[in-house]
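Q: Sequence in, structure out?
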Amino acid sequence: MKVIIRKNSAEGSLWAAKFIASRIKEKAARTDEPFVIGLCTGSTPIETYAELIRMVKAGELSFKNVISFNMDEYVGLPESHPESYHSFMHKYLFDHIDEKPENIHILNGNAKDLAAECEAYEKAIVEAGGFDLFLGGIGEDGHIAFNEPFSSLESRTRVVTLTQDTREVNARFFDGDPSAVPAQAMSVGVATVLSAKEVVILAFGSKKARAIAASVEGPMSHYCTVSALQAHPAGIIVVDEAAIGEVKVNSYRYFKAVEAAEKL
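A: Exactly. Output:
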């Protein structure tokens, strides 16, 4: 696992956007196969998406040969609802880049058969060639996507019940009312995320500090599902100074030293 430490979320987001762009360009230079990426929602990736949009509009990057799959979606929330993840992704990314509509995949939280929708989603990922890169964020309790504490580290795309903590955190998007947050969601599993060739996790702000310390220095555990990244051969966590604040001083120094050495 690598930990990239930047001063603030703006610098961390810029690093992530440049990294994603470099991977898309590298694959395009050696093959005609599409670049397959997993994407997340929430406030954390917005600055990264803004930089990717800037690159596309400046002609520095293209999503024409990119296939995307989003992490999750609420169950029962209309796609047109302003807080659905369909709406979020179009507002903050898809409406501003050149990705083909048929290459955009988001779980249908209103499907008649939710289990079948989840199974089809996993199949579509495989048929696309599997993830080249998965971009994610984490919850304050260390969950990745909607894989709440005690989710199986071998889990795949499925319907999940959201914890009260998660509903309370997400209530800020629903006029501060936790009861307005859907009780269930559809989410890729921990194993789905870890199937990617590379995984980039973003975590900014002091509220994420305990989760980062647990995921980096603690044991790999289904209590902190992002800790499963410890077993990934190419896992990267991008943090700001506030989010890295709970790790040991020597851990902090180690990650800074590794990045400095790789620049030589």
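The CA atoms of residues 204 and 243 lie 5 Å apart.
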